[in-house]
Amino acid sequence: MAAFDNLYAGRVAQVRDFGYDAVIISGTDPHSSEYPAPRWKQVEWTSGFTGEAGDLVVTQDHAGLWTDTRYFIQANLQLAGTGIELHKTRIPGEVLIPEWLSGHFTNKPVRIAFDGLCQSVGAVKELDDALRKSYGLGGYELIDRPDMLSELWNDRPAVPHSPVEWLDEKSVGESRKEKFAWLRGEMRKAGCGSMFLTSLDEIAWMLNVRGSDIDYNPYVISFLLVTPQNVIWFVRNVSEVPSPEGIITADYGVLEDALEDRRDECGAIYIDPSTLNYHTYKLIRKFFAESEIVFGPSPVILRKAVKNKKELEGFRRAFIEDGVAVENFLYWLETSVQGGARITEWEASEKLTSLRAQIEGYRGNSFENISAYGANAALPHYSTPREGSAEIKPRGLYLVDSGGQYTFGTTDITRTVPMGRCSRLEKEDYTLVLKGMIDLTLAVFPEGTAGCQIDAISRRPLWAARRNFGHGTGHGIGFYLGVHEGPQSIRQNFNPQPMLPGMVSSNEPGLYREGKHGVRHENVVLCREEGKSEFGSFLSFETLTCCHIDTSIVVKKLLNKSEWDWLKAYNRVVYRMLKNRLAPEVARWLKKKCR
Amino acid sequence: MAAFDNLYAGRVAQVRDFGYDAVIISGTDPHSSEYPAPRWKQVEWTSGFTGEAGDLVVTQDHAGLWTDTRYFIQANLQLAGTGIELHKTRIPGEVLIPEWLSGHFTNKPVRIAFDGLCQSVGAVKELDDALRKSYGLGGYELIDRPDMLSELWNDRPAVPHSPVEWLDEKSVGESRKEKFAWLRGEMRKAGCGSMFLTSLDEIAWMLNVRGSDIDYNPYVISFLLVTPQNVIWFVRNVSEVPSPEGIITADYGVLEDALEDRRDECGAIYIDPSTLNYHTYKLIRKFFAESEIVFGPSPVILRKAVKNKKELEGFRRAFIEDGVAVENFLYWLETSVQGGARITEWEASEKLTSLRAQIEGYRGNSFENISAYGANAALPHYSTPREGSAEIKPRGLYLVDSGGQYTFGTTDITRTVPMGRCSRLEKEDYTLVLKGMIDLTLAVFPEGTAGCQIDAISRRPLWAARRNFGHGTGHGIGFYLGVHEGPQSIRQNFNPQPMLPGMVSSNEPGLYREGKHGVRHENVVLCREEGKSEFGSFLSFETLTCCHIDTSIVVKKLLNKSEWDWLKAYNRVVYRMLKNRLAPEVARWLKKKCR
Q: A24 partner at 20 to 30 Å CA-CA among A255, A408, B187, B553?
């Protein structure tokens, strides 16, 4: 361990040697991606921290990692010996980077450097506002040094460029032509001729294209310029990328020239400051006056969250295929462990992946499998180690959270499985979390209701027993795209986005007892119209996930009749849908489970 | 009716004759009160509209009343024939006054006049921002004409000045001295020496004083200047107002002189722009530079919402005294109507008031009784007419929403009473609303939870049946102060104020079927600590209201066991608490009701 500690302490020292008062190293890429490609794991390279969210600040007298509740335990372990301090976010009294930097220095001007490729315009504006308030105009300097870590990071990976996959336009329900006609209409409404798209999932959705440049996310690293006449797609290895009619491909590296050449056909340009990187924004500013740039949230985000008929057909198929794989996995796990085999969390995870991989149209997992036994499941974002993972014993609870990317949809499912004898507390927690999941499944709510206004419905049974969980209850899910997508969410935060018919979201309450066990039940639900009455229009959820829920340790008196009825009916439907797709012994086993 | 129509059309014409492009007439008073004294019922004088919320705009070609969902039906009736158009607020797509005015004119400069005494600084700033965006600097003029309607309104009532009542400092739990020491501490934290208080309930709470200048609200119309050394209270008829030690009284009309005299002892001054009127703000600006004024929400609002031990003792007593009055009323009503007496809504209302008036310490009702039978109860804010109100028949539902002001607390209670045979729909609505009220009563939630995050708990049973109601579920209640107070609320709007132990709020879901019936069940609940666990601290509610809930038409299968258990236990407690305070025949009747 000492060698590693020194490694990161040494890298922090190298960053310090740039000579700035502060260097900010962000955990994202030039597209504000949630999961960046290896080239942009700059926080990991510098600090050793592998969490999916975190930013680093190195000053001459301090090094700090900012990350949220999900990663406190992991950060403490990984930062040990590096000299890097953990700054906690998403807790009361949090001090975020802009605020911290505005209070830290006494010299003037304060010189702060960052890789402008990996900072959004919005983030730099926030930083700038905070620094100006504190140090005054001229009291600080923001230095954009694109790819600055490349000077230190000798074997830094290149920008990836995997083969691209054009989706069958019939299978996704909406052609590029239709999508661009719609987007141009939105641009006209915003008083713009053109739009510069930077977010990889939005570009993939607009173009009906997928790639594999990033683990778990089927994106192509690229930018997209939509003008009144043309669609220009900036990709790596442009000569190898065949483009369909109406799409002009250009090199990812020649953005500046292209912007200059295309300036006149663009008119005013629309950009989303929450995803456009600062460095690229400066390029755009070379050719567009401030008055010719309109900032706003990308309209693609909401549009792609509301799935069309074809996408929903695909989703339904995906959840059945996926359900077959998960049922086969659960059968294998139970019979193996109860038969005395020694199975580790890692082996279970690999088995599950191999079962998914047999599905036609499988393109990888939608995120890293969480395969966690016993106390390990108490970490909501447990990362199963390849070496030395825990053995799954024939007692207590095993939690598996996983999903697949298929050309016809994306899945995400969590099952908590009793492996044998369970404690009273395990049974109670299992039941109360399940009760919350069912209550949200059964919820009916008026049109216009946002996720934060119904989140309490899933938490109420836990709250009543003075229990709670620290993550959101539900996130949007893309169609063969990111397993996390906006704009809707079901959580306590005041996100005003109403739930809309056609949105696909997870429903995943949980409960985590450090050192003991963890429970999470996750189904994916489709928001749909429930009907009108004299009191207005109402919405409800349809469950898409098709995989049984173990009832053997449910504490019956904790469920009311309608909850219990739902559970029985759900398992009945799962059995009916899957029985003909399973080997006879698995079907027999599932029949028993679903009784 | 024609004469009245002409009256208001004529008054609008008189306002138009001032010659401005627009005149704004606000429904509030110089203290941003929810219920103004008659002098400030300027909207009513001009338009005939008597709703509790509404603003009027008169231009040369248009007259419009802006009011919210609660008053649409009433406004349509009262505005008929006046030529005044209804502009609906709190609906999707609402266009508020600033936005409407910014889009209405083509001439420049647009000259807009208002009574600056009755517009808050915050409201004028919003208006100014909107107009500047639309017409540009110099393109419009805002003209402050204090008391401008007095020129037209010959018999306009004077500013009221009823006798003041100093509360026993022991009975309210906190002395003026303690309160001002706390407030001065808050001012220091905000970098201010002094504060100018304008909201009447805050002034009454700070001074432990009450009055009767406004119907239903025990306030004294006044301003309060708190400096590091002195407390100066600006009241009407200053010579008749005895003041306790440490309080300097001054005349309501000499604000300007006093501000000049006191300028030096003030230091920087703190003001709440949401309640300070624009005209008075301009006076303050004569003596204070912009940099010497700190804007912010008044800290008194939150402090007074969290009740102390003595206040809670008072509240508990108030709800028992009040419960006795309401039980006597319900007994009288049932036996009278079933005995064949002809009782109108108005007579019932008068009877209820007379029963409350017998309570020692009664100081009036806390709002206008809503006494509504049958279809009248479908108007959530029904105003019972003195003449020609409906007769209460021995069938269907009667709704009574009422409350008292006592020197030891304020009450607010709604009971919906089956008067005899009820329809299936009446029974179902009655039960579902009750189920929602009980579910919220039984809710447990983590510290930090805001009302909007638990509102769905009370609506869920209605939503499940595709029913809903259009008002909030709960509002704060003052201690012998306003029956509506902030900062907390339980409703769909994103109000971030967490519920805190010691807050007293209503719990009042409802259901309204136009032309048929209305149901509302309202208890008042105290937020309290529920205890800690490894998952944090939890809160819950204690019911303060002490008055039985009729179970005769409850549809049993719609309540689950814990809801039904709560209902039985609640009625048992009510009977036990009240039986010795009631006449034998009433106690016997209540015993039966509570079985």
A: A255
Closest CA to A114 of A87, A138, A147: A147
Residues of B in contact with A492 (CB under 8 A): 449, 453
Q: Which two tokens stand for residue B108?
A: 């420049």
What is the CATH number for A198?
A: 3.40.350.10
Cα B247 to chain centroid, rounded: 28
Q: From the centroid of its chain, how far is CA B535?
A: 36
Which parts of chain B register pLDDT below 70? Answer: 1-5
Predicted local distance difference test score (pLDDT) of residue A1: 34
**Please, where are the H alpha helices in B190-232?**
200-207
Angle at A498 between CA A493 and CA A500, to 5 degrees: 135
Domain boundary among B151, B183, B206: B151
**pLDDT per position as a tens digit, A316-356:** 999 999 999 999 999 999 999 999 999 999 999 999 999 99
pTM: 0.92
- Side chain identity, residue B571: N
B288, B313: one domain: no
Give this complex's ipTM: 0.90
Q: Does B492 touch chain A (CB under 8 A)?
A: yes
Report the Cα–Cα distance between both ends of chain A, in Å, rounded.
51
Token couple for B564: 């039904």
Contacts of B448 in chain A (CB under 8 A): 92
Tell me the per-residue pLDDT of B219-230, one tens digit each, with 9 for 90 and over. 999 999 999 999
Bridge partner list, A489: A475
Instruction: Please report, for the domain that includes residue B507, its CATH number.
Output: 3.90.230.10
> B510-513 and B404-406: which strand pairing?
unpaired
Question: Which chain B residue has its CA at the smallest distance from A469's CA?
Answer: B535
Q: Chain A residue with minimal CA distance to B495?
A: A494
Give the pLDDT confidence score for residue B5 in this predicted structure.
52
- Among B444, B463, B467, select the one facing A463 at the smallest CB separation: B444
- Inter-chain CB proximity B454 and A456 less than 8 Å: yes
A447 in contact with B at a CB cutoff of 8 Å? Answer: no
pLDDT tens digit string along A405-425? 999 999 999 999 999 999 999
Both B295 and B323 in a single domain?
Answer: no
